[in-house]
Amino acid sequence: xxxxxxxxxxxxxxxxxLLVSGCTVGPNYHKPTAPTAPAFxxxxxxxxxxxxxxxxxQVSPNDSALRPNWWEIYQDxxxxxxxxxxxxxxxxxxxxxxxxxxxxxxxxxxxxxxxxTVQAGPSASRDRQSQNRPLYVNGTKTTYNDLxxxxxxxxxxxxxxxxxxxxEAQRAxxxxxxxxxxxxDLSLRSELALDYFELRGLDTQQRLLDTTVQQFEQYLDxxxxxxxxxxxxxxxxxxxxxQLDQTRAQAIDVGVARAQYEHAIATLTGVPxxxxxxxxxxxxxxxxxxxVGVPSQLLERRPDVAAAERRANAANAQIGVxxxxxxxxxxxxxxxxxxxxxxxxxxxxxxxxxSLGGSAVELLFDAGRRHAITEEARDVYEQxxxxxxxxxxxxxxxxxxxxxxxxxxxxxxVAQQRAVDSARRSLDISTTRYKGGVTTYLxxxxxxxxxxxxxxxxxxxxxxxxxxxxxxxxxxxxGWDTTRLPIP
Length: 488
Prior knowledge:
- This protein has 488 residues and is of the alpha+beta class.
- It has one domain (22-89, 159-327, 368-484): Up-down Bundle (Outer membrane efflux proteins (OEP)).
- The chain is 58% helix and 10% strand.
- Helix 5 runs parallel beside helix 9 (441-475) and helix 7 packs antiparallel against helix 8.
- The longest helix has 67 residues, at 162-228.
């Protein structure tokens, strides 16, 4: 029975469709479940007792999110300028960017396997056969030309979805690398902000010590005047001189740490430390309120969480790649072209040649290798899923740590300010008593030391508040979210 051409065409089209579409084996990906909470614990705490009104600020969750340029909430033009240089000049960030570009290029490597490979090219040879060869016929030419112009097509159709799973895995890997890039960017920028506020906190300490040195110089003049008048002793002058010199030494020592922070900022901004400097600027900024949001948003805002989730997706796709190895490997090849002994007759109908073939190979025995590879792929997925859940838990811990840190430091700052006020009042009383001859200069020295210690502690708490604020911003993802992940 003769098959109509229309039926044959439909059958051929159906076979071609099967070869192109095939099926995709292996489990489809579902995001692993992760523990979460309805609210941040530290965002709804009870204020500590015995604090004056305004001495404690509750960090209230809200729906507003940090902006990508999160450092602008501190309203410091110098910090804004430094942060802008990170994206332009930081070499660590550039290296991470190139790593992401590698991952993107790898996607195209796998996608190329969807299509046949085509080769074409001419060849020419001048051949001479032996006249003493077996079955030689007298009079046959032994020297001749052989000219070829041919092409070859080879294609392995993705019947079982192995290539599709590999593309899926590489796409997820590229997205994970993009999230890694965002995480490096966030880490570098937050490190810069931390170093900057530490440096400005040291400038506050420097200003405090310089002012104290001026005050102690006045006290030294006072004791010298009283000693000249016979009211004070030489011991009082020695004590005043010792206190002054000791404070000058402390003021000089601040410069060591400040120089190191300045050098660190230079490196983060891609500038040689030898050619970088920042003018002194005490930390007199108001501490901004960081928008916290709700816990469910945290999973979408943290680039490290997104990277861990994308790697779980990539690992899940590799299970499908392993399962596809159980199915036959199909190869289709075709060759066509022209062959002739003369160039003038090369491109002619009688010179044409072609061949078309296919093969299917099924691995029958591998001593459990494919099973082991599949189990390995499943275990790798479970490992990545566990890493994702652990990253989520770590993210919640970091947010809670810095929320509690800000709350406690705020309370400590209020209490410390009271101590500073009391120390200043104590020094004023001791100075008045000393001038009136009621007490010795040792009492003044004690009051001076107490005041300076408490003022330096207060300045240190302020620096720690800014550091905790930056760490909270980092813990919240720094204005990043998963909508910024590329779709390669």
